[in-house]
Amino acid sequence: MEKNQPPIPLIKTWIALARQNDHPDAKLRALQMLRDKVGTPEEIAKLLKQLNM
């Protein structure tokens, strides 16, 4: 985990919200937070792989 990266449980929460379809606003917000705090879609995918998600 990088120095300024949010805690892993928070990232996992954002990922879970981004994968659901019941609440579109929550999904969009989670995706925005992932992009803002983790980085590009490629960086997010790399982190998912590291977390075995």
Fold blueprint:
Elements (H helix, E strand, L loop, with lengths): L7 H12 L4 H14 L3 H10 L3
Helix pairs in contact: 1-2
Protein name: HEAT repeat domain-containing protein
Organism: Thalassotalea piscium
Verbal overview:
The chain has 53 residues and is mainly alpha-helical. It has one domain (8-50). The protein is 68% helix and 0% strand. The protein is built from three helices and no strands. Helix 1 crosses helix 2 (24-37). It starts with 7 loop residues before the first helix and ends with a helix. The mean pLDDT is 91.
Care to give the gist of this entry?
It comes from Thalassotalea piscium. The chain has 53 residues and is mostly helical. It is built from 3 helices and no strands.
List its salient traits.
globular, 53 residues, mainly alpha
Low-confidence stretches are none
Rg, please? 10 Å
Helix-strand pattern, N to C? HHH
- Gross geometry: globular
Largest β-sheet summary: none
Tally of extended strands? 0
Number of helices: 3
Domain tally: 1
Task: Give the mean pLDDT.
Answer: 91
- Tell me the fraction of residues in β-strands, as a range: under 5%
Helix coverage percent: 55-70%
Which structural class is indicated by helix and strand composition? mainly alpha
Distance between the termini: 15 Å
